[in-house]
Amino acid sequence: MKKQLNVQSSIRLKGDQKAFGPGIASLLEGVARLGSLRKSAADMDMSYSKAWTMIKNCERELGISLLNKKIGGKGGGGADLTGEAESLLKRYRAFEREAAVRLDTLAGKYFPEYIKNTENTKFFEAGPWILVRGAGDLATGVILRLYRSGFRVAALECKNPSAIRRRASFCEAVWTGETQVEGVSCRLAQTPEQAEKIWAQGQIPLLIDETAACVRELHPAAVIDVILAKRNLGTSRSMAPITIGAGPGFTAGQDVDAVVETMRGHFLGRVIWEGQAIPNTGIPGKIQGFGAERVIHAPAEGRLSFVKDESGNMVEIGAMVKEGQTIAMIEGTPVKASLDGVLRGLIQEGFPVKKGLKIADIDPRPEQAAFCGIVSDKANAVAGGVLEALLGLAASRQIRLF
How far apart are CA 306 and CA 285, in angstroms? Predict the structure, then answer.
C-alpha cells in the first residue's frame, strides 16, 4: 500500500478553541524570518486579516503577547517576536518532534499495514532534517560529515552560487543537476517533497532556497549556516530548536545557539558558546609564504569564459599554471595567474562576475593537484566543530536527531 500517516500536534486549553498549533507556529516563524506579519501571511498564501485574527485569538487564549509591532497596526507594518513568543515557539517545536516520534511508534503498533513492507518505511524511520545553508566547499565538508554520521541532511543554496572550489562543492548541483564529492551524490530538488524522495534514494538533496523558507515544511531539528557571507543573511533561532553559524557575522546566544570558528590558526573549528568568531581580515591564510597572492579577483566585469593553454588543453581545475599565464577571459579581458601552482578553484563558466569578485584560487604546492576534488583540512575542522555543537546542544536540550 502507498499510504502515509500524517501526525500533527496542537495545544488546546479549554473547550474546542485551539490555542496553538502548526499553523500559528509557521506564521510566527515567518514573522521572525521576514520581519512582518503581512509578509509572513503572504508567504503562507493567507490573507492578512486571517493572520491577524489567528494572532489575536492565540494571545487571548494564552494570555501573552506574541508580536512587537514596529509601525502600523492591523493595517500592516513591521513586527518581530516577543521573548514569550520565541520561547513558546521553541518549546512547541521540541514538543511536536518528541510527540511525533512517540506517535510514529504507536502508529507502527496499531496500523502496521500502512507502514511495513511499503516504500514509506524509511519515512517513519528517518530522523528529523538537519538543514545546511550554503553548499560551497566548507559547507560541503559539514554536509559530508553530517551525512556520514547518520544524520538526515539537506543543503540550501542560492540560484547563482559563486563557489570556486567547484569539484569539492555540492553547490555544483545547481548548475549540473547532480554532482559527487568523495563518492557521495548530491542532487537538485525542486520541492521539499522531491527532497524527501531524493533522500530515500540515498542521495543528499539540494534546494534552491536563499531565505530558508522550506523550514516551514521540513521542520528541521537544526539549521546550520555555512554561507560564509561574513554577515548573517537571515538565520535566526526561531528557525529550528538548534541553530549554528560558521564564521563571523553571528553572535552565539543571540541570533544562533553556537558559532564555529573558521579562521585558520589555533582556534579553527572550535565551538563558541558566547560571542562571535574572529572578524574577517580579508587576507587568506598563508601557504608556503603566499597569502593574498593565492586568490585571484576579477579584473573586469562581465561573463567569464574558459580558455585553452599553449598545448590546446582547456585550463581547468587541477591544471598546473605559471605566473602570468591566462587562465580565463572576462569579456575580452584576460585573467592572469598570480603565481606558479595548481589551479585549485575557478568559478563556473558563464558566471556574470563583477570587478573584484573572487574567481580563482591557486595552491603553490604541486602535490595538491590530486586533492582538488577532496574536502580540505579547513573544511574538515569546521565540520568537526559543527558536529560537536550539534550533538552537545541536542544532548543538553534532549532533542532527538536520529
Answer: 27
pLDDT at 321: 96
DSSP track, 201-268: TT-EEEEE-TT-TTHHHH--SEEEE----SS-SS--TTSSSEEEEESTT--BTTTBSEEE--SSSTTT
The helix-helix angle for 377-397 and 137-148 (nearest 10°) equals 50
Alpha helices in 159-298 (DSSP H): 173-176, 192-200, 215-218
Grid coordinates of 327: 587562465
> What would the mean pLDDT of 41-46 be, rounded to a whole number?
85
Neighbours of 16 (CB within 10 A): 5
Euclidean distance between the first and the last CA atom of the chain, given in angstroms as a whole number: 25
Residue 390 has pLDDT above 50, yes or no: yes
Beta strands in 15-64 (DSSP E): 18-20
Query: Which of the two residues, 34 and 96, has the higher pLDDT score?
Result: 34
Cα gap 61→58, rounded to integer Å: 5
pLDDT in the model for residue 9 = 55
Task: Determine the residue type at 168.
Answer: A
Residue type (1 letter), 261 = E
- C-alpha–C-alpha distance, residues 392 and 397, integer Å: 9
pLDDT at 116: 46
Nearest to 334 by CA among 281, 298, 293, 374: 298
- The grid cell for 57 is 485569538
The pLDDT, as a whole number, for residue 172 is 97
Confidence bin at 123 (pLDDT 50/70/90): very low
Enter the pTM of the model.
Answer: 0.71
Question: How far apart, in whole angstroms, are the C-alpha atoms of residue 181 and residue 170?
Answer: 7
* One-character DSSP codes across 120-149: THHHHHS--EEEEE--SHHHHHHHHHHHHT
Residue recorded with cell 532533542: 399
Ordered domains of the chain (ranges, CATH) = 1-125 (1.10.10.10), 128-282+379-397 (3.40.50), 292-364 (2.40.50.100)
Residue of 178, 181, 169, 182 lying closest to 134 (CA atoms): 169
In this structure, what are the phi and psi dihedrals at residue 215, rounded to the nearest 5 degrees?
-60, -25
What's the grid cell of residue 83? 521573548
Residue 8 pLDDT greater than 70, yes or no: no
